[in-house]
């Protein structure tokens, strides 16, 4: 390949961004925009809204448990395309659903598809990029999430104005069709390994390769894996409380018009565009330990402002901070797994910490929905999220330097 030709790794990163745009951005973060209309149309209570979200995470949890075996058997490319196809078909089904049970089952299947697409696409970072590029590459991929938040925040209110009470149905149908298109693109563009195209991973070859395998007997390996898992669990339990219920909070508790609430949610997406790549690059420079601590500090402030009850200005500050750190943790985590555990063990290690993440997501929104039903407000849930991310900040400082286990 000539020096003037971009490395195919950047095609992988761009396609990964599209994959996350669909499997997490549309499948998960658009849910918060669709939830008020769907809840009204189907007569759902706060607790049922939370259970639908929890059903999605239960499906995601099941996919995470299966992922290591499936990645070895089918390879990432086929698994990603299949996951996106499942998401697309289930989104279309939700758009036609008439009851809580149908939505719950279909959205749980969307969670399975999300896990089948998300885990292998993030594992590709370790295959296609060497250590000094991994944070930025993972950050570029998670920009897809921010783009999807902007897209859904602008699109869903337009569909609701156009189709009235059926707006949420048209939203699911449009998102399902778009995900189907992305599934086709992913199947065509993704490649499992640079060697498939006669290439090497992008980045400088190190004297002690980041891809070297950490022997299982090295002291501290298990502790690092558990610490990363707990950090990811806290992230999963907190960020989706905000992602699921923030728009509902604006509409129900603060009396925002849906269009105004959608604009606030779009601002989350705008700032989230820079989240992964900024914190990923920061962690390339200062290390994964410092990057994780910085991201959790910003998230703690965001949740404190959301639960402060100080009005619109505090909510706006919360939106900015949440967006800036929204996807920092996944991008740093993908890079950290490659750094600490090497190429050979990256898939199994990432699947394990993602299991923690999915467990946190399963508990978070459902608990917040039940708590909101009992108290009539989401304030307590946001403050509890702030306490958890403050704990995560402290735990982050216990990690060794990236590569210190080698």
TrEMBL record:
CC terms in the record's Gene Ontology section: plasma membrane
A molecular function GO annotation: transmembrane transporter activity
Protein name according to UniProt: Sugar phosphate permease
InterPro entries: MFS_4, MFS_dom, MFS_trans_sf
Gene3D superfamilies on file: MFS general substrate transporter like domains
Entries under PROSITE patterns matching the protein: MFS (PS50850), PROKAR_LIPOPROTEIN (PS51257)
Location of the Major facilitator superfamily (MFS) profile domain: 9-404
Parts of the chain that traverse the membrane: 7-31, 51-71, 78-94, 100-125, 137-159, 171-190, 224-242, 262-282, 294-316, 322-343, 350-374, 380-399
